[in-house]
Specification:
single chain, about 350 residues, Isopropylmalate Dehydrogenase, 2 domains, globular, binds 3-isopropylmalic acid, binds manganese (II) ion
């Protein structure tokens, strides 16, 4: 099988973590006889520097024509004064919207050996496996906004079909897990949340009767993620709440650098990217954690290319490397020598059994 992957390394640490992830993708694809054709394009600040726009037409076209897209990270202080619709982040938002990637899957699990590196008491985190499903093309991110000298506004809007499609995907994924969905909203205050709650209830109750659905407010969800994270399985939420809660949830795993994501729509291609940002303060030093990027390749193999065995082998290799104490600077304890980005990638390659 021949597949095309468009790669968008982006800004800051994006190119470094992308290089490790792609090295691993190339090695695995050779082993399993998947013929991968990668083409690299500019997005974010790197695209602004070259073409004055964060999502050049050529980049979008290449993405549309590919089977999967891999993105490193976008943004950085260099572009912070650019007007809002031309900022690096807008490139990523436009890409998500243009490809209708409405569901963003962000799995969070505890890794053996890393629990002690989290800010939590010993024994507090045991074998967590949470799937955050974040709606990705609606809400505050895409509503009308404006700013004048004296005031500014952003609007949050959701339609019933937008909520239905992400709820339906959550229902499908929940049936392959423990059949429990916790839907997060702020229905005591917001109309969009009341529509969200009613629509999610209808879709799940009508179409997935074996799934247990509970609703909680976002402020309580933020607290329970810390106090009793083991009570969550699928956490379904709208765009902005999902952005915030997934960064919070990353601390359960140990570091923001560990979390991958898959952004999926009704049709191909999917977009795979670590949830972390461009971390300009550590860019270019070969010290960034590539795990989120590498596990995004794992999600690409699983969701876009239906290569579950290869995906499992990669997951296992990453777990082994972490349990063996090969840790990047964001994870090491005092006095321990951190592995570089490339050393971590090397260790994963050595551990892949296929
Ligand atoms: C993420 C990022 C993006 C978001 C930014 C870079 C626009 O924080 O993928 O979570 O807010 O969605
Ligand atoms: Mn984010």
């Amino acid at each position: 099988m021949t597949v095309t992957v468009t790669t968008l390394p982006g800004d800051g640490i994006g190119p470094e973590v992308t290089a490790e992830a792609l090295r691993i993708l190339q090695t695995i694809s050779k082993k399993i006889g998947l013929d991968i054709c990668c083409n690299e394009h500019l997005i974010g600040g790197a695209a602004i520097d070259e073409f004055n726009v964060p999502l050049p037409a050529k980049t979008l076209q290449a993405c549309k024509e590919s089977d999967a897209i891999f993105l490193g990270a976008v943004g950085g202080p260099k572009w912070k004064d650019i007007e809002v619709h031309l900022r690096p982040e807008q490139g990523l938002l436009d890409l998500r919207k243009s490809l209708e990637l409405f569901a963003n899957l962000r799995p969070v699990s505890t890794q053996s050996g890393l629990a002690d590196l989290t800010p939590f008491k010993k024994g507090h985190l045991s074998n967590l496996n949470i799937l955050v499903i974040r709606e990705l093309t609606g809400g505050l991110y895409f509503g009308k906004r404006n700013r004048t000298a004296h005031e500014a506004f952003d609007t949050c809007k959701y339609t019933v079909p937008e909520i239905e499609r992400v709820a339906r995907l959550a229902g499908k994924l929940a049936t392959k897990r423990t059949r429990k969905i916790t839907s997060v909203d702020k229905a005591n205050v917001l109309d969009t949340s009341r529509l969200w709650r009613d629509t999610v209830s209808r879709v799940i109750n009508d179409e997935f009767p074996s799934v247990t659905l509970e609703h909680i407010y976002v402020d309580a969800a933020a607290m329970y993620l810390i106090s009793q994270p083991e009570t969550f399985d699928v956490l379904l939420t709208e765009n902005m709440f999902g952005d915030i809660l997934s960064d919070e949830a990353s601390m359960l795993a140990g570091s923001l650098g560990l979390l991958p994501s898959a952004s999926l729509g009704q049709n191909k291609p999917g977009l795979f990217e670590p949830i972390h940002g461009s971390a300009p303060d550590i860019a270019g030093q070969n010290i960034a954690n590539p795990v989120g990027a590498i596990l995004s390749i794992e999600m690409m193999l699983r969701h876009s290319f239906k290569q579950a065995d290869a995906a499992n082998a990669l997951q296992l290799a990453v777990n082994n490397v972490l349990s063996n104490g090969v840790l990047t600077a964001d994870l090491v304890s005092d006095g321990q020598k951190p592995a570089s980005t490339i050393e971590f990638g090397d260790a994963v390659l050595e551990n892949i059994q296929l």
